[in-house]
Specification:
With 214 residues, the chain is mainly beta. The chain has one helix and 20 strands. A hairpin with a 2-residue loop joins β16 and β17 (169-176).
């Protein structure tokens, strides 16, 4: 189940998790942190989930990715650097806070290098994207003929203020390094939603957006 601080306004739910609320687990190549999973009682180890947002510290110089059939994956490097190789398909050098790679979970994928990364996994019926967020830029959250949408914001700076604007109202959230904010909403009920960050750092957060298709 989700931990953290939950609040709701018309058609929108906010879940703020402090770094100490998050689940950290060691794996063979480093440490992974689950930021959010859907449904709320989903179980990644049992592969029972529709989508999952996470971050990992890759400690081994060479790593082989777990095979995840039926999962579409997105990955971004927060710091450090890795080169991804999808056997027989392509090789991609990942620059921090810039490049995003998408690939299927059952591809034979390996990496060389050490980094902290940001991950999104989605199954059939769900889609998404990830990107770095810049201070002062207005980000419009997904709208459309979707069942439900989620946007997760992961703080990688010492401090940011997240301002969420909707129908003339504004909710503000203070995040520290390692904190996570999940915004979930039904587009037909919420109306347009936008987000602006305030921080001393130019690129203080990364975000993952997910939408459930009808």
């Amino acid at each position: 189940m989700y931990g953290g601080i939950v609040m709701s306004v018309t058609g929108i739910e906010f879940l703020k998790k402090c770094e100490c609320d998050l689940e950290h687990k060691r794996w063979s190549g480093g440490i992974t942190t689950q930021l959010a999973i859907w449904p709320q009682d989903g179980d990644y180890a049992a592969r029972k989930f529709d989508w999952r947002i996470s971050s990992a510290v890759v400690e081994d110089e060479e790593s082989v990715f777990t095979s995840l059939k039926g999962v579409h994956r997105h990955i971004m490097v927060i710091d450090g650097g890795i080169t991804l190789t999808h056997k027989g398909i392509r090789t991609k050098e990942m620059k921090p806070m810039a490049d995003v790679d998408e690939f299927e979970g059952d591809w034979t994928t390996s990496s060389v290098g050490r980094c902290t990364d940001f991950n999104l996994m989605v199954k059939k019926g769900f889609a998404g994207k990830m990107f770095a967020m810049r201070t002062g830029e207005n980000t419009d959250l997904p709208q459309g003929d979707f069942v439900r949408c989620w946007t997760g914001i992961y703080c990688v700076a010492d401090h940011i203020c997240v301002s969420v604007k909707n129908n003339g109202d504004c909710e503000n959230f203070d995040l520290r390094r390692g904190d996570f904010l999940l915004i979930s909403y039904t587009p037909s009920e919420s109306g347009e939603i936008s987000v602006v960050l305030k921080s001393d750092k130019d690129v203080p957060a990364v975000a993952a957006e997910v939408w459930q298709e009808k």
